[in-house]
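Quick start: read one record
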Amino acid sequence: MRIVEQSWQFEEDVNGAAILRKIEMAGRTCYKSEDRITEESASKFVAGVIKSGHHSVIEHHNITVKIITDRGVTHEIVRHRIASYSQESTRYCNYSHDKFGNEITVVLPVWFKGLTEDNLNRTDEEGRKRHVQYAMWKASCEQIEKAYFELLDAGQSPQEARAVLPNSLKTELVMTANLREWRHFFNLRASKRSHPQLRDLATDMLDGFRKKVPVLFDDIQF
């Protein structure tokens, strides 16, 4: 069994300046004010659009990302309806095959980050509790892996044997959404009320989106 941390990446080049210009061009069509477009006008225009709530204008651009996380998290992500998804399928992926390393891969829960063999001897109560919890989680996943392979050996198909696979199972998800939906995603999933695993992912993604696309996500703060 392999343990990995969740991650994500843009699946395409993201040119923030070009995106702002595209939104400005679309938005100014409403007012027939295209003559006011300059080299520097896009940022101010888009900021005004966001402030005024005229968010339909920012639907004119989509961004695609690939997310590596656990299946529990993706069950929440795919509830965002105005988006397109392609996800690694446990019906067709047989994790006993060589291309999967003949093992399942699970995603480390964020509350276990930083736990290593080197700090197993921490004496504080919280440290001891976390290490016990981590050992229980890891042992459970290993037992599930064993049961999964035994079911395959007994003649079950991957789509049948997957019934025992855990929420911690690693999955890859390609997600495409327009900028308005990305704002909705971050407002919900980067919130302190979000599930810790998803919030860890969403806050890191929000930081990446802010760096690539100015203005559009600057007002989302938690």
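Helices lie at 16-31, 41-52, 71-77, 125-153, 158-161, 179-189, 196-212.
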